[in-house]
Amino acid sequence: MNAMHDAPSQTRWHRAHACIGHGVTAIDTPSLVIDLDAMDRNLARMAAFAAGHGLRLRPHAKMHKSAELAQLQMARGAVGVCVQKTDEALALAHAGVRDIYISNEVIDPSKLLRLAQAVRDLPTRFSIAVDSALGVQRLAQALHAAGVSASGCLDVLVEIDVGQGRCGIASGVPAVALAQAIAAQPALRFAGLQAYHGGAQHRRPAAERAAAMAEAIHAVQTTCEALNAAGIDVPLVTGAGTGTFVIEAASGIWGELQAGSYLFMDADYAANEADPRTPAFEHALFVKSQVMSRCDGHAVCDAGHKSHAIDSGMPGVWFPDGLAYTSGGDEHGVLRAAGNQPLPGLGEVVWLVPGHCDPTVNLHDLMVGVRGGLAAGHVERIVRVDARGCLG
Amino acid sequence: MNAMHDAPSQTRWHRAHACIGHGVTAIDTPSLVIDLDAMDRNLARMAAFAAGHGLRLRPHAKMHKSAELAQLQMARGAVGVCVQKTDEALALAHAGVRDIYISNEVIDPSKLLRLAQAVRDLPTRFSIAVDSALGVQRLAQALHAAGVSASGCLDVLVEIDVGQGRCGIASGVPAVALAQAIAAQPALRFAGLQAYHGGAQHRRPAAERAAAMAEAIHAVQTTCEALNAAGIDVPLVTGAGTGTFVIEAASGIWGELQAGSYLFMDADYAANEADPRTPAFEHALFVKSQVMSRCDGHAVCDAGHKSHAIDSGMPGVWFPDGLAYTSGGDEHGVLRAAGNQPLPGLGEVVWLVPGHCDPTVNLHDLMVGVRGGLAAGHVERIVRVDARGCLG
Fold it and tell me: Which terminus of chain A has fewer Cβ atoms in its 10 Å neighbourhood, N or C?
């Protein structure tokens, strides 16, 4: 089957966005650009935070989808990474990432078989979340079909709904039967609870995030109590995002943090009212664009919805100052001066800060890593988005 | 430079979404699926409309980004295709498309040099729009730098703003100097006017679209009059989208239609109040997803913002009936019953109709072409999205 897919992708016309060693000015537009200096500072700040709190850090690689960045995070102390999809896990494992947790449900037998074959064949340590008895049953069947029979060879975490109202079994007693179902499968090991409140991450007032997380903390506590009352130990509670991880860390309940966006820090997270306990993360991901049309009232840049995701709003204009970006459709951005600033001229460069980094990265095959700043730096590396488009 | 980009893409882990000849049930989720029977009917309806009006059809390939579909459209009478980006043009030309018009401005000298080299080296006939004297000058310089000196070897169209307020020079007299600047460059030929009103395409009431197009028609007429008064002939007026092309066709002014979305007919275009003159296009593009989490009140499917674009709203649920899709984020969709319909169970398939086909296709490397219907059909072909991610 792969040949069908590989062949076209290998014969496809490609073009480089940039050359290593060249200046920023030579980067084509629109391109996704990483400020490597800012990214390194974000890396160090989060590593220090996790170490300072005695917590495991397992950043979410669904954000960057890059084996190179996952390995960089692990070199700075992360125990591994999270992903949301089976094929994200396989793409990163094939690219050399050695500890990958699928923090999401997989119910499709064909996907579970792909995962089981990877558990059998690859040196990567995999783990996965479940929220249904059917999910546990199909996972065990897939491992059996792949001939994986080693005792407790796959860690499985029970996802509980801690307030988002999306996936996850109800907190408290319902989680007990699911943990028992996992324990009843020789090839599986009950490894703890997946407890992530996605709905709390972007509530602007810090107090609202704290209130939402208070409910999440209660949900996790009642679930741990129910499991303990049934004689089941909870080895780990894992979760947290960039908007709330300081709350999970302070709770003393979570043992592992899954925050991912801290690495690039998008415009949406930057719009949150800061919690004073949160490290000062910097924007590290930008779209380099340029003006390709001008009239008296506005300038049009060459970056639209196909260059950056807009599910969390339009990108901010990082440089030049005083410009507002409004949608110009899939391939255009309309720029207007907020005050009396002059509009940029034809061909002038405009730097954008994406509203939401995860789906923005997923639009690009490559990210251009710049050292020495966006103004006068040079291209140090080209970072491949290994799991781009891995939806299955 | 290309080697840097090719190498990673060729070593990247890939997986097929489907096997040719297999049933629809074997298509992985989430996958982008084309109902080939519906697409063929849409193709035939638009070909008949253009032929019946004596108009050239140049569908916009920014929608499907596929050389195979571009060639299918040309086999059914299209004179060529449009694209918005230099690298879309180059990707499709390298994949065998022989007549490509860049209906957008390109001001970057490096992009213009890539285009000029393609004009020199490839058998494809290229053409391009401009809206500035600098654009004309840089285009001529790029052709000269590439050693392209044949007289009138590149057709250039002047884009005028017909009401959208995005790109395009002001209508009327200002277009005259630009046409003269083109004519003054030996390698360039003034080929007519680019007149597209993107802002009119999705106004729901047909009367509002007609009112917006009345202004556009006036803008084109005054521009043609100004050009004729200056002794300049206007060989062609090209433009129109799926929301208004019947109006351009009825005007007697446009000679070429650029509509693209008619081929797949997304949910956003289907929401327009129909103009009785418009052929009855059918939905031909779907996202196959499946339920991967369930609770009492809702089901969660495995298709989120990374599977379909949401710039024109959430996808519609095509099957099963009576379900409403709300955002569950990048990887999830939350499904609720509109009435008393039962919710689909774990693993059940859910078919979605994307809100906007262009940026949805751009999220996928492949489209799975199904013959015989979504319920019991089989996979006839895998359609490659050759220009996916070609932003430059």
Answer: N
Which ipTM did the prediction report? 0.95
A/B interface, count of CB pairs below 8 Å: 238
Chain B contact for A119 (CB, 8 A cutoff)? no
Which pLDDT does position A297 carry in this prediction? 94
Is B118's pLDDT higher than 90? yes
Question: Per-residue pLDDT tens for B197-216?
Answer: 999 999 999 999 999 999 99
pLDDT tens profile A54-78: 999 999 999 999 999 999 999 999 9
Type of residue numbered B338: A
**Which residues in B lie closer than 8 A to residue A85 (C-beta atoms)?**
331
pLDDT in tens, B245-290: 999 999 999 999 999 999 999 999 999 999 999 999 999 999 999 9
Angle, CA A305 vertex, CA A302 and CA A307 arms, to 5°: 60
Are B311 and A305 in contact (CB < 8 Å)? yes
Answer whether A346 sits within 8 Å of B107, measured CB to CB: yes
Spatial contact of B157 and B238, defined as CB atoms under 8 Å apart: yes
Beta strands in chain A (DSSP E): 31-35, 56-57, 81-83, 99-102, 125-130, 154-159, 188-194, 237-239, 256-257, 285-294, 299-301, 316-319, 323-327, 333-337, 349-353, 366-371, 378-384
Residue A121 touches chain B, beta carbons under 8 Å: no
Find residues 201-220 of chain B whose CB sits inside 8 Å of chain A. none
Whether the pLDDT of residue A357 is over 80: the answer is yes
Q: Indicate whether A14 pLDDT > 70.
A: no
* A2, A165, A347: residue with CB nearest B14: A2
Record the tokens describing residue B104, joined without a space. 């957008």
Averaged pLDDT of chain B: 95
Q: Residue B49 is encoded by which pair of tokens?
A: 């409309």
Q: How far apart are CA B97 and CA B101, in angstroms?
A: 11
A97 has a pLDDT exceeding 80:
yes
Whether B288 and chain A come into contact, CB under 8 Å, resolves to no
Inter-chain CB proximity A382 and B29 less than 8 Å: no
Tell me the C-alpha distance between A388 and A187, whole Å.
31
For residues B382 and B364, is the Cβ–Cβ distance under 8 A?
A: no
Confidence (pTM): 0.96
What pLDDT digit, counting tens, does each position of B331-372 carry? 999 999 988 889 999 999 999 999 999 999 999 999 999 999
The backbone torsions φ and ψ at residue B198, rounded to the nearest 5 degrees and listed phi first, read -60, -30
The token duo for B202 is 């999705």
Query: What is the residue whose two structure tokens read 């081929």?
Result: B263
- Domain B3-35+281-384 annotated CATH 3.40.50.2300: no
CATH homologous superfamily of A37-267: Alanine racemase (3.20.20.10)
Q: What is the pLDDT of residues A315-355, one digit of tens each?
A: 999 999 999 999 999 999 999 998 888 999 999 999 999 99
- The answer, yes or no, to whether residue B12 has pLDDT greater than 60, is no
Q: Any idea where the domains of chain A sit in the sequence?
A: 3-35+281-384, 37-267
Q: What is the DSSP letter of B170?
A: P
Q: Would the CB atoms of A13 and B294 count as touching at under 8 Å? A: no
Q: Do A15 and B114 touch (CB under 8 A)?
A: yes
* B263 Cβ contact list (under 8 Å, min separation 6): B39, B42, B43, B46, B59, B63, B64, B69, B73, B284
Please answer whether residues A173 and A179 qualify as being in contact, where contact means their C-beta atoms are separated by less than 8 angstroms. no
Is the CB of A105 inside 8 Å of chain B's CB atoms?
Answer: yes
Give the whole-angstrom CA distance, residue B110 versus residue B142.
8
